[in-house]
Amino acid sequence: MIDEAPILTVARSFERPPAELVEQLSGMLTSQIVDAMGGSGALDWRIKPIVPGQDRFCGVARTSDCGPCDNLALMASIADCQPGDVLVTATAGYEKAAVTGDLTLGMARNQGVVGFVTDGMVRDLEGIRDVGVPCFARGLVPNSPARSGPGTVDLPIVLGDLVVRSGDVVVGDPDGVVIVPRERLAQVVEALVQVRAAEAETLQKVQGGLTVFPFMAELLASGRVRRV
Questions:
Q1: What three-state secondary structure class fits 22?
Q2: Where are the domains of the chain?
Q3: CA 96 – CA 2 distance, rounded (Å)
Q4: Are 10 and 152 in contact (CB under 8 A)?
């Protein structure tokens, strides 16, 4: 006899990153964080802020996998959120119905959630604006989802071409969303010091009239360029 499949599968626990390291990523540009990770780490480019001006957040990922046209797992994930968490909800990129609206995001805000990210769609734009939680999605559609499952909470998900786990750090700004794996957090924070210093130095040179990067000037003057 085959047992009936569970409606929800929920991880018993996950490891949270050190709060002081998460705080050091707050206010950092996603482009700088990507550079500190070697040039990758951003979600699919179509996942963008829904409300202009509500487009920056930094926090700890809380994952849910709802599948297409359902949000039961998302609703369950909110119940155990802590202040500073970011809801990261996979829908398999479903575009025909929203995975959440303003009421659900309002409950998330009441739990201290500081951001919402999905590879699917959302609805209730005016209400989401009033809620004030930065919401990143593929777009808007009024259709509503079911709440029947199955789904997972706090287990690894695939969203925007990346694997995301509860306990990873999520940073969003107008450019998009970056995922920092928990085990790389200390390394990324350290690398950011050099990235920001190098950017500041180059910016000063650009403002002073720089027209070509030194490495490019050297390459163009070398024998490695064939002019025809």
A1: helix
A2: 8-197
A3: 33
A4: yes
Question: Shortest CA distance to 113 belongs to which of 82, 76, 157?
Answer: 82
To which residue do tokens 């995975």 refer? 99
Helix, strand, coil proportions of the chain in percent (round to 5)?
30, 25, 45
Structure tokens at 34: 């990507």
Residue 2: pLDDT band by 50, 70, 90 thresholds? Answer: low
β-pair type (162-164, 157-159): antiparallel
Q: What is the pLDDT of residues 139-178, one digit of tens each?
A: 999 999 999 999 999 999 999 999 999 999 999 999 999 9
Which amino acid belongs to residue 193? V
Residues 6+ apart with CB under 8 A from 11: 152, 153, 154, 155, 166
| Topology adopted by domain 8-197 | Glucose Oxidase; domain 1 (3.50.30)
What is the value of pTM for the model shown?
0.94
CB 47 within 8 A of CB 160: yes
- The total number of residues written for the chain in this structure: 228
Residue 75: its pLDDT value, please?
97
DSSP helix/strand/coil, 134: coil
> Quick count: other Cβ atoms within 10 Å of Cβ 169?
25
